[in-house]
Each structure stands twice: as structure tokens, then as C-alpha cells.
Amino acid sequence: MINLLPPETKHAYRYAMQNERLMRWVVALLVALIGLGAIGTYGWVSLHQAINTNSDSVNQLQKTLAAENLTGTENQVQTISNDFSLVVKVLSQEVLFSKLLKQIAAAMPQGSNLTSLNITSTTKGSGLDITAESTNYTAATQVQVNLADPSNGIFSKADLVNISCSSSSTTSNQNSQYPCTVTLRAQFAANNQFLFINQKAN
Q1: Which of 38, 84, 92, 183 holds its CA 20 to 30 A away from the CA of 119?
Q2: Radius of gyration of the chain, Cα coordinates, nearest whole angstrom
């Protein structure tokens, strides 16, 4: 087929076709750029959200672990403290009577006889209520003097509660030898060797 169009028209058609191709390429590039921009924006937003979510999770986990650890530690410390206090309390009241009786007997004056010991609790620690019998009033007072003597290493003090002496007419044959009764309230010395808690390891 012979193209009889003038040269100017031919050039115009040729440029028109080239322009159409260029427009297609431009549109394709624009679509590609828009697609890449959308993909990049979506990726950035997703990444940012993931970072924020992970940061929140890490912070929450750290707070939870810190709170649980603090509470657990406080509970353990409190439990240990309570157990230790209980042990100290029990041991502080555990009297080694075998040693105590020997020492008190050695401190008793002539003409006296130990009759009873009762553990008491005072505001400053543990002690004993002591009852003894004696042949006379002088021996009864000497019981208090001897037990209060710090050189015995038993009591820090021994207070006289009561001394009563029965007359020979009212005293039974069984108690005729010890007509006087003396009652003392004694408090253990701080470093006495008659409480279990004060025993030194060998």
C-alpha cells in the first residue's frame, strides 16, 4: 500500500504515536511509583505498630516480673523473720533445769530447803517464782540475799515477795523443821548459763 500523505502529515502521525507510547510509559511509571509508595507506607506503619506493641509487651512484662519478684522477696523475708522470731522466743524460754537446780541448791543457805520453781514472764524477760522453806526468819531472808548475789551468775535481781513463819503450835509435825516459807520473784541475768539460747557451741 502506497502512503500518499504529505510529509508533514506523516511526521505528525509519527510524533503522535511516539507521544502515545511516552504517555503509556509515564502512566505505568506513575502507577508503579504509587504502588511502591503504598507498599512502603504500609510496611512502615506495620513496622512502627509492631515496635510499639513489642515495647508495650516488654514494659508490661518487666513491671509484672518486678512486682512479682518484690512481693515474693518480701514474703520470703517476712516468713524467715517470723520463723526466726519464733525460734528465739522458744529458745529464750527454754530453761536448762539440770544446771539451774544445781546452782540454786549451791546458793541456798544452811537451814533452808527449795520447794518450788515456776517460770514467769516479765516486762524485761523471763524469770522464776521461787518458794523455799527455812528453819527461821533469818535463814529465810538469807535465801533472798544469796540468790540476789550477782556472783552466783543466776539472777540479775531477786525480789522478796513474802516471808511467813508459823508458830510451833500451828505447825504440823511434817513442817516443824521448816516453819518459815519465803517467796521470791527472780529475773535471769542477761548472760546466765541456764537458758538454752545462751549456750556456747563447743
Answers
A1: 84
A2: 51
Q: What is the pTM of this model?
A: 0.47
Q: Please report, in tens digits, the pLDDT of each residue of the chain (202 residues total).
A: 555 556 676 666 677 777 788 888 888 888 888 888 888 888 888 888 888 888 888 888 777 767 666 666 677 777 777 666 655 554 455 556 777 788 888 888 999 988 988 877 654 556 788 999 999 999 999 999 999 888 877 888 889 999 999 876 555 545 678 899 999 998 877 776 766 544 554 4
22 and 109 inside one domain = no
CB atoms within 10 A of CB 158: 23
Retrieve residue 141's grid coordinates. 531472808
For the chain, what is the domain count? 2
Do 103 and 187 have their domain in common? yes
The β-bridge partners of 126 are 121
Rounded to whole angstroms, the Cα distance separating 106 from 95 reads 18
Q: The domain containing residue 29 runs over which residues?
A: 7-36
What is the number of other CB atoms lying within 10 angstroms of the CB of residue 13?
Answer: 12
